[in-house]
TrEMBL record:
Any GO BP: response to amino acid
A GO CC annotation given for this chain: cytosol
Annotated source species: candidate division MSBL1 archaeon SCGC-AAA259B11
InterPro entries: ArsR-like_HTH (IPR011991), AsnC-type_HTH_dom (IPR000485), Dimeric_a/b-barrel (IPR011008), Tscrpt_reg_AsnC-like (IPR019888), Tscrpt_reg_AsnC/Lrp_C (IPR019887), WH-like_DNA-bd_sf (IPR036388), WH_DNA-bd_sf (IPR036390)
Superkingdom of origin: Archaea
One MF term in the entry's GO annotations: sequence-specific DNA binding
UniProt name for this protein: HTH asnC-type domain-containing protein
Keyword terms, alphabetized: DNA-binding, Transcription, Transcription regulation
Residue intervals of the HTH asnC-type domain: 1-57
Amino acid sequence: MKILKMLVEDGRKTLREIADEVGLSTSGVRRRIKVLEDEEILEGFTAKVNPEKAGYGIAAFLNIDVKSSEAGRVAGTLTRCKGVCEVHKTTGNHGLIAKVRAEDRADISEFVEDRLSTYQGVKDVNITMTIETYKEDLIDI
């Protein structure tokens, strides 16, 4: 877990730096990372982008009321759309929830009105715009 936490905090850490901190050899660290990858706990290494500085200053959550037989297809389409960060099947009234990032509110409204609401099986979309983001991480270990 300590190796995983270190990689989440800084994916650029060298094997030597990790080894020194956890008291293992570099080959021992390499083996443990390989196990994390093989068990699909660690799915890869990526850069963390500041969405606001990259031009995606607005976040919104879309509660999508979708026909249950179309949920998988709509979710699959959403996963390929620019600005869509997350898509989840949910319990309750809606069926899907998506987190979207865009340059401004108009971009989100346009995405919902011109694209998402036209997808087959989508009955309604309720948009919740964020005002401020206090924390946005994949997981805090």
